[in-house]
Amino acid sequence: MNKQKQARMQELVELLNRAGRAYYQDAEEIMSNYEYDRLYDELLALERELGVTLSGSPTVNVGYEVLSELPKERHERPMLSLDKTKDVEDLKGFLGDQKAVMSWKLDGLTIVLTYREGELHKAVTRGNGEVGEVITNNARVFRNLPLKIGYQGELILRGEAVIGYKDFEKINEEIEDVESRYKNPRNLCSGSVRQLNNEVTARRNVRFYAFSLVQAEGVDFHNSRLRQMEWLKEQGFEVVEHYEVTRDTVVSRVADFSARIAENDFPSDGLVLVYDDIEYGRSLGQTSKFPRDSYAFKWADEIRSTRLLEIEWSPSRTGLINPVAIFEPVELEGTTVSRASVHNISIMEELELGVGDEIQVYKANMIIPQIAENKTRSGVKDIPEACPVCGGRTQVRQVSNAKALYCVNPECQAKHVKSFALFVSRDALNIEGLSESTLEKFISRGYIREFQDLFHLDRYREEIQSMEGFGEKSYRNLAASIEKARVTTLPKVIYGLGIANIGLANAKVICREFAYDVDAMLCADEESLSAISGIGEVIAKAFTGYFSDKTHVKQFRNLLKELEIPEEGQEQSEQTLKGVQFVVTGSVEHFANRGAVKELIESLGGKVTGSVTSKTNYLINNDVTSTSSKNKKANELGIPIISEEDFIKMTKEGR
User: Fold this and answer.
1) What Cα–Cα distance (Å) separates residue 652 from each residue in 572, 587, 600, 601?
2) How far is C-alpha 77 from the chain's CA centre?
C-alpha cells in the first residue's frame, strides 16, 4: 500500500511542478486553480501520513528559479510562503488570545524594497524565496511608489506589485496576437515588472502596496505591526487595506472582506493574518516553509453542480480555437453563470470533459468562472474537424505544455478581425461600440462573415443582449451607431475595405477621378489608374488586384446596397490647396482632432505628411514659437510655421 502511495506522491510532484512551471514561467494554464489546490492538498496529506517528502516537492520548494536576464540577488532573509486554510474556525485557533492584523492577500508579484538616506536604493522580486531579480529601474516607474521619503535610515519593506482588472483588460485589448495575451492580471504584472526596458513597465500602470516592514533602524514601533503599517503610510507608501482583529471579531471581518471582493479592481486570492505583537510572532520561529506568525485564508469557493450542455469552439485571429463550456445556468457569488473558458484541449482531457457530464463550477478568486471537477467523466469527444466560422480544416497542435485546436484556413474570417476593425474605425464607417474583442466574439459566433452582415446584427439581438458586457442599453447604442453609419461617403467605403496601400486620401483621389461612378472604377485597368496624379503603379495594382476577385466585387456591391451615399457634387469643394503639402502637429482647438484637419486639407486637394521635409509647404502648429523637433526642422528649411487660425483664413481666402 505504501508503495502505491509513494508512486502517487511522485506522480503528484511531477504533475504539480509541471503545472507550476507552465503557470509561472510560460504564463499558460494546464489545469485550473481549483484542481491544483486539490492535488496539492492530496500530496500534503500523503506526506504527513507517510512521513516522507520527496525531492522537488512543491510543499517544500517555495518558488521557481528565475529565468530572465535581470541581475540576481540573494535575499538577506528567506521569503517563505504562508500556511493556509479555507476554514474561518482555523483562524480563531490561530488567534487564540492574540490580536492580529488582517489584510488582503493581493495576487501580484511580491517585491522587497530597500531605502537608504531617504531614497530608493534597491528593489528585488521574491524569485524562488532565496534569490530574486533586481528590478530597481522598473520600481522607479511604479505609479504610486515614493522615490524619496522622510526617514533617512535603512528601511527594508515588502509589498505586492499589482495591475488592476481594468488596466489588465485594456492592455490585453491592445495585444493583437490572442495567444500572446495574458491569462490573468498576475501574469501581466509579472511580465511588466520583469522587463528589461522600464518604459514598458511605466505604460502598464503597476501599483505597489506595502504589507510588511522588515527593518527600520532606530524607530520604536511599540512592538506593534499596526503601528508599523501606520508609519509606512506616514512615509508616503500606499499600504494594503488592513484591520485589527481578535478571535471575537475575525468572522465578521472575513465576511466584510468577502462581500467586497467582487467590487475590487485589484486581484486578490484571499486574506492574510499576522500577529500584531512583533516579539511574540518572532518567538514562534518558522518551519522549513512557513513562518509561524502568519496565516493565509483562501476563499472557500462557492461550488455548484450543473450539467454540461455543449462545448462552444471560439476561433481567434491567430487560428487558435478556444473551447468554452456551456452549462445549465447556476447562481455563483451573486450572479448567474452559464459559461466558462476551458482554455485548451489538455485541460479538457485532464477533466475528461464530455457533453452531458455532471460538472462542478466555481469562480476563481470569486471573479472568473471555472470548472472545478467533472463527476461523470464521459471523456473528450467530438473535437471539431471543421472551423465553426469558415468551415475550413482544423488541426490539433502541441504548443509548449498544452494541446490546442487551430483552424488552418488562411482566409478564415476569424483571422481577419483587423480588417473588420478598420472598416468600423473613425475614418471609415465610424461605428462606435465595436471594439476588436467584440468583433472577435461576433465573428466567432457566426454573426459576421462579410461587411454587409454588420448591418443585420438585429438578427441576433437577444443573443447579443445576453452576452457578457452587453445589455439592452449597449445593444441600443450599437444599433443606433450602425444606422447612423449607413449614411457615408464612397471614399470612406473604399478605404474601409482595407485594400493594401490605399488610405482615405488615395480613395478620395480615385473617386474624384471617376466622378464617383462605381462601375467605372471597377472596370478601370492598371494603366488608367496609375496615370492619375498621386496614385502610381503600386496603388493601381493593389486596387485592380482586389477587385479582380469576383467574391470581393460581389461583397462590395452587397455592401453598397446597405448604404446611403449622397451624390457628390462635382463642385463640392474647390481644389484651392491642390499641390500644397502640410504637416500638422500639436493640439488643435477649432477641429475635433488633427485627423479632421487632415480631412479638410485633402478635400481641398492638399496633402498631409508626417514629417517635415524640403517638399513641405507649411507646418501647422498652434505653438509657433515651440522648440519641438518639427519646428526646428521647419525653421532650418525656411518653411512657414502657421497657426490653426492662419490655416483657417487660408482655406477661406484661397491661396
Assistant:
1) 14, 21, 12, 12
2) 34
Nearest by Cα to 173 from 414, 431, 421, 388:
421
- Lookup result for grid cell 467586497: 260
- Condensed to tens digits (0 to 9), the pLDDT of residues 368-381 reads 788 988 999 999 98
Q: How far apart are CA 305 and CA 449, in angstroms?
A: 36
Residues of the chain by 3-state class (helix, strand, coil), percent to 5: 40, 20, 40
CATH 1.10.3210.10 fits 304-407, yes or no: no
DSSP 591: S
Select the more confidently predicted residue: 235 or 128.
Answer: 235
Q: Which fold would CATH assign to domain 72-297?
A: D-amino Acid Aminotransferase; Chain A, domain 1 (3.30.470)
What does the pLDDT read at residue 359?
93
| Full-model pTM | 0.51
CA gap 108, 172 in Å, rounded: 17
Catalytic residue numbers, as ranges:
105
**Which CATH number does 581-653 carry?**
3.40.50.10190
Return the axis-axis angle of helices 33-50 and 2-24, rounded to nearest 10°.
140
Q: Which CATH superfamily is domain 2-50 in?
A: Helix hairpin bin (1.10.287.610)
pLDDT one-digit tens code per residue, 185-226 = 888 888 888 887 778 888 888 999 999 999 998 899 999 999
CATH architecture of 490-562: Orthogonal Bundle (1.10)
CATH of domain 413-485: 1.10.150.20
